[in-house]
């Protein structure tokens, strides 16, 4: 049983869904993302589907799966490297060669030249990025193809192209006296490879939550405005921190002409925010921050910048998953931390740093439903397939898309996080 299963079985009222105790394979056949914070979100048509995981892996117990993973890893040696995101369950993290946030994992994909195969325990956009940055001949495998990201799904290529066409018609394409073009596209890492390629083609860049400020500085040096997608919250929180007034950050709703704005609002804009959000981080509220402060005087509240702006404003600090990890690691005195991010990461920090009291701002256990899709059963399956000289679930971005996306990703990798 996983740590979350134990909690669900002992205290089902404290979890967002009793389905969390089920294996992710039970959800591979359903149209939604399964249990967890984005269970209400539907996987877009055309998104990759996971075939049925063989019964031998669905029915194996945890000890058996871990033994099989270890044996397959040992047989593969340095031909394979396993990358894991901080939001993965502990049962998967224990097998990762490298654990990190999305910026670090993108870097890591470039620094494992000997491995023939990168097994990416994260979500689809991260595996796509690894494939774009990996060396030729290196394959990237996502153990469960249904591990998407509901936020990334909120901006599709057609809607962004349509938005861009309307903005270009409004702004024109002429640079101003300082050489700044009317608008620069910035996509959050949590987006499809096609949108990263769009940014590469249009003089734009990719950002992660750890380097968003450096990236916006880069964009403002080159453009009068920024179109930021898909996460409105990361865009708003970062631009606000940099002094951009809220009234100069109109939101773009792709279902409405001019995104639901007037031409004047858009002309005056500094950042046009796409209307996407993360279903995990939108669960955090100002009331939770207030309750944490009332219950635990002196608590240090740290949240991820995908949280809504009022939550970020009410917190003591906001930063990427790696920022949060480092902040906890750096605390010398025993401290009480209330953390606003995904539950697997918060629980792991609490176990790693018992000298501190660490709890999730949201009292209900609710993991990211797409990260949840990666289970040791899938990891054992892909590794044993590799041992048998077969390669399932390879993520391959077509070269014409990858070439443009690489331009925007290389710009991102050069934009170091402020706290690095
Ligand atoms: P990081 O960039 O902090 O790793 O976050 C990725 C993510 O998906 C957060 O929801
Ligand atoms: Fe996507 Fe949110 Fe899950 Fe991150 S936590 S992978 S943004 S759904």
TrEMBL record:
GO CC, alphabetical: cytosol
Residues that coordinate or bind [4Fe-4S] cluster: 149, 278, 368
Keyword 4Fe-4S listed: yes
Residues annotated to bind iminosuccinate: 85, 102, 188-190, 209, 304-306, 321
Swiss-Prot/TrEMBL keywords: 4Fe-4S, Cytoplasm, Iron, Iron-sulfur, Metal-binding, Pyridine nucleotide biosynthesis, Transferase
Alphabetical list of Gene3D superfamilies matching this protein: NadA-like
Chief location of this protein within or outside the cell: cytoplasm
Record's catalysed reaction(s): iminosuccinate + dihydroxyacetone phosphate = quinolinate + phosphate + 2 H2O + H(+)
Cofactors demanded by this protein: [4Fe-4S] cluster
GO function term, MF aspect, one: 4 iron, 4 sulfur cluster binding
Stored InterPro entries: NadA, NadA_sf, Quinolinate_synth_A_type3
Pathway: Cofactor biosynthesis; NAD(+) biosynthesis; quinolinate from iminoaspartate: step 1/1
Co-factor remark: Binds 1 [4Fe-4S] cluster per subunit.
One Gene Ontology biological process: 'de novo' NAD+ biosynthetic process from L-aspartate
EC number of this enzyme: 2.5.1.72
Compartment(s) where it occurs, according to its Swiss-Prot or TrEMBL record: Cytoplasm
Domain of life of the source: Bacteria
Its job: Catalyzes the condensation of iminoaspartate with dihydroxyacetone phosphate to form quinolinate.
Family (UniProt): Belongs to the quinolinate synthase family. Type 3 subfamily.
Protein name: Quinolinate synthase
Lineage summary: Bacteria, Bacillati, Actinomycetota, Actinomycetes, Micrococcales
């Amino acid at each position: 049983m996983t740590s979350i299963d134990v909690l669900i079985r002992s205290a089902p009222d404290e979890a967002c869904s009793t389905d969390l105790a089920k294996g992710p394979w039970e959800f591979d056949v359903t149209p939604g993302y399964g249990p967890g914070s984005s269970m209400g979100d539907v996987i877009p048509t055309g998104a990759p589907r996971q075939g049925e995981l063989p019964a031998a892996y669905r029915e194996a117990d945890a000890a058996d799966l871990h033994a099989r993973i270890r044996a397959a890893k040992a047989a593969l040696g340095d031909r394979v490297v396993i990358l894991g995101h901080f939001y993965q369950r502990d049962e998967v993290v224990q097998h990762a060669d490298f654990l990190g946030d999305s910026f670090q994992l993108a870097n890591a994909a470039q620094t494992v030249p000997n491995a023939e195969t990168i097994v990416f325990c994260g979500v689809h956009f991260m595996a796509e990025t690894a494939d774009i940055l990996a060396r030729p001949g290196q394959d990237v495998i996502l153990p469960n193809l249904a591990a998407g990201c509901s936020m990334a799904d909120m901006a599709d290529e057609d809607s962004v192209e349509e938005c861009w066409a309307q903005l270009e018609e409004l702004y024109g394409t002429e640079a101003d006296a300082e050489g700044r073009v009317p608008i620069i596209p910035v996509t959050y890492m949590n987006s499809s490879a096609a949108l990263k390629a769009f940014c590469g083609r249009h003089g734009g860049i990719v950002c992660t939550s750890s380097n968003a400020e450096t990236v916006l500085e880069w964009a403002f040096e080159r453009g009068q405005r920024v179109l930021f997608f898909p996460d409105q919250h990361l865009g708003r929180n970062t631009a606000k921190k940099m002094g951009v007034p809220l009234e100069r950050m109109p939101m773009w709703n792709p279902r409405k002409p001019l995104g639901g704005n007037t031409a004047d609002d858009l002309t005056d804009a500094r950042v046009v925010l796409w209307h996407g959000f993360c279903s995990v981080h939108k669960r955090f509220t100002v009331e939770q921050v207030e309750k944490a402060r009332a219950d635990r005087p002196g608590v240090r509240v740290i949240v991820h910048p995908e949280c809504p702006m009022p939550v970020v404003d009410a917190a003591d600090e906001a930063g990427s998953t790696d920022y949060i990890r480092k902040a906890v690691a750096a605390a010398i005195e025993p401290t009480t931390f209330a953390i606003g991010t995904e539950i697997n990461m918060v629980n792991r920090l609490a176990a790693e740093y018992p000298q501190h009291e660490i709890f999730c701002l949201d009292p209900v256990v609710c993991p990211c439903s797409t990260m949840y899709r990666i289970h040791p059963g899938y990891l054992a399956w892909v590794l044993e397939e590799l041992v048998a000289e077969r390669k399932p679930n390879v993520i391959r971005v077509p070269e014409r898309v990858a070439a443009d996306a690489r331009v925007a990703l290389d710009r991102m990798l050069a934009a170091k996080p402020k706290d690095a």
